[in-house]
Amino acid sequence: MKIASLNKDLHSLQNQLNSETATQRDLHDKRAALSKEIRDAINQVRKEREARDALTHEVQTLKNERAELNKQLATKREAHAKILEQKKELITKLKVGDPDSIIKEIRRIEYAIETEAPSFEKETKLMKRINQLKKQLTSAKQITEISTQARNLHTELSAIKQKADTIHELIQDKAHASQQKHHATVQLSTKIDDLTTQEKEITKQLAVREKTLGPINQQLEEKLEQFATASEHQRQENVVRTAQRTATIKQQLAQKRLAVEDKLKRGEKLTTDDLRMLQMIVEQEEEHEKGEKK
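User: That's the sequence. What structure does it adopt?
Assistant: Structure tokens below.
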């Protein structure tokens, strides 16, 4: 096979090898990028789950606290209902009005006296009514005490309910945040599955493509051996041709030298052409000697 043809084949195989190597390198880079993205997503999933679990724990703690407050509310409401019932029984027993209503009535009359400027007769009548109401209020001291207890219990109930409502809002907020974290975890898990599928597909492609490198390398090695053999053969042929050419030139030079020397022996006069020829012979011999030394 001619060297030019082998050289062409070598160039083609080398291009194939370079192209395939570049393609596989790109696939390796893509798989590495996918692997990193998968690792990052897995780390993010772990963080989201930890945050979700922390929120879930907080929600459970708040629910327990709310349950305790609801128990307190039930107890306080029961106590408040009993006190109101006692107040009602005392009002019936003492036959007086509700102390709170009496106080309101007294204040209403006092305000009327101050703002309406009633006549002397009407003012006297209103003052008499105030005194009657105050006597009733004194008689209803027990009812007043119970009313105070009822008001205090109502205040406690309001405070507990407000706290329970606040906790309920916190539970809703944290439960919503926990749900968002769970949703993010699900989305990330789906993303990881997709990325893993892509990574496996690239791994399959690489497994197929890596098998193509062997034949290309084998062909390349074979062509290189053929190229080396052909080059050596051509070198040897060149050596033989050079030797033959050198021998021919030496033979020609020797013949020319003999012709000139023959003229000299016969005593013939050398012509200008003979001298020029002799000079050329000497120069050519020197050049060949130099070439052979190289």
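The longest helix spans residues 141-265.
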